[in-house]
Batch of 2 targets.
Target 1
Amino acid sequence: MLKITPIPIIQDNYAWLIQNQGKTLVVDPGEAKPILDYLQQQNLQLDYMFVTHKHWDHVTGIAQVKAAFPECVIYGTGHHDIPCREIALMGGETFDLMGLHWRVWHTPGHTLDHIVFHTQSQEDNGIIQDHIFSGDNLFACGCGRMFEGTAEQFHTSLQSIISLPLTTKIYCTHEYTLANIDFSLHIEPNNTYTLHRQDVCTELRAQNLPTLPTTVADELKSNPFVRCNSPDVIRAAEHFSGKVLGKPEEVFAVIRQIKDQF
Ligand SMILES: [Zn+2]
């Protein structure tokens, strides 16, 4: 039975712990101690690590976790040097691990080296559930900063995630949801779904619970970065830029610019 647990690390990151068929994997171990403490409390060995991109808050814990579990195999982006990485992934790979079938794809935009990991599980009722580990690419109601790459690349990367089935669970690596919702409401003040989501997520955070994972359906209804065809999002981008914006990637570029100054 697939079990996926967020381990809070650093200030507002999550390292996702994935357990299936007696094996354990951690995604983006940006800090070792909370992960090692959790594994010890649960009496677990670590078998694999996945690394989405090069940023310090995703890689800093790798060496220390590897020292504690020398047999652990590290899969990471092949577009940049990643500490201790054994298997370099460029995107386009598929492989079986822990009884799960994995697909990897390249999602440049936040950084040029960014990759994401997709898998599926079968629920008790027989329904296939999609899962994607999106790193700093797509966030709940937001997306990562555009440090490298172009708006067109980032927009394409986000669209590749959002074209998964509506029920797909999205496991991103930051608890930025409430701040992102404030921005989403700045762009689309009349989006009733975002207002509802603000209530739900405020309640979760008041109980110190994660607002994640999110889903494709939630993002399509409330995330301005994947709603670049929505009239309110286009209007906000055109108002800010003072230009008529013909393409969704142009709208995306402007929305990203507004967020940087928000
Ligand atoms: Zn990052």
Target 2
Amino acid sequence: MPHLALTHGHMDHAGGVASYLGQRKLLRLGPTTIYAAEDLLPSIQSVVEIWERVQGNPYEVKYQAVRPGEYQELDGKLLLRPYPSVHSIPALGYTLCRTARKLKPEYKDLSGPEIASRRRAGDEVSDPHIEHLVTFTGDSTIEGLLNDPIARSARVIISECSFYGDEDADPALRTNVQHAHAGRHTHIDDIIGNLDQFGCETLVLMHLSRKHTPEEAFAALESRLPAAWKDKVLLFHHGNRAI
Ligand SMILES: [Zn+2]
């Protein structure tokens, strides 16, 4: 079953829920579980129910309220961990995790066959372990990641980075670092200044403001990223969003 985790209630993040559910119903793709903070979920449910009445047809949907730090079990070994983001309205980020077994330190110098033989003899050779695979920040200042060691330890971090304007940028565009922080968003200065906090293999930057072309963002990344990060940072955008 698909899992749809909402970060917050702004239109550009939650406004498509009913449309998404409608498309799944139309194409007979089966039910979806929607996760959202307990304060937000009833409003989302109301919006969906209004569209069910408008369409005269119920959607296939389940609702699950979440709280920061409390893991939700998804399918199989996957877990979803919400954490607090820092935005202009209450917001969450999420870390997708996987349960695994980790070899106990006292067995780490043994060969594979030796470990197998200990296991057959009934030894518990591993401990349960949670891997932090992917973090998605939603909309947030950089403090969302900086405040949460688990979120920023993920192997892949998908972080918002909305603004790239420098001090010479036209003030009317409101794209510099002060403007980003006033709207509780992340600026490229925040990313560059905190790279040493991230141990991730890949950092995906998203939520590029429509005030920037992708080319502007690519140029800023090319000129500002340290060499060690150039191959690890990706920019996710939706074509020329200045249109
Ligand atoms: Zn927002």
